[in-house]
Amino acid sequence: QVGIRCQHCKDILPTSPSPSPNNDQNRNRSTQNAISYPSFISGIYNTVQQMYRLHFDLCPHIPDELKERVANLKDSHTSNRGGRKQYWMESAKRIGLVDTSFGIHYGRDPEE
Predict the structure, then answer these.
(1) 3-class SS at 97?
(2) Most buried of the four, 25, 40, 55, 93, by CB within 10 Å?
(3) Are the C-beta atoms of residues 52 and 79 closer than 8 Å to each other?
């Protein structure tokens, strides 16, 4: 099944050992909503929007420069062109993703 994850905290495990309970709590909070497995291609857009709302600002592993760049794009009028649901659906299909009864899968080798 195909999923979406934050590339900046992908190697941070919420259950990895830490010296204090407060660090565990902060790490768990920052990695929440960092991974999602939408059931259908039509759900990718909503999944990305939810990840942005619930994870992006809390993730300490996303560089501040990237957060600033995204904020600037959000404020510009041109940033809305590629953000619509249809764009995400067409892009997913273009790289070979297909809906199955077991979630989203690659319908062909993604390297082709």
Answers:
(1) strand
(2) 55
(3) no
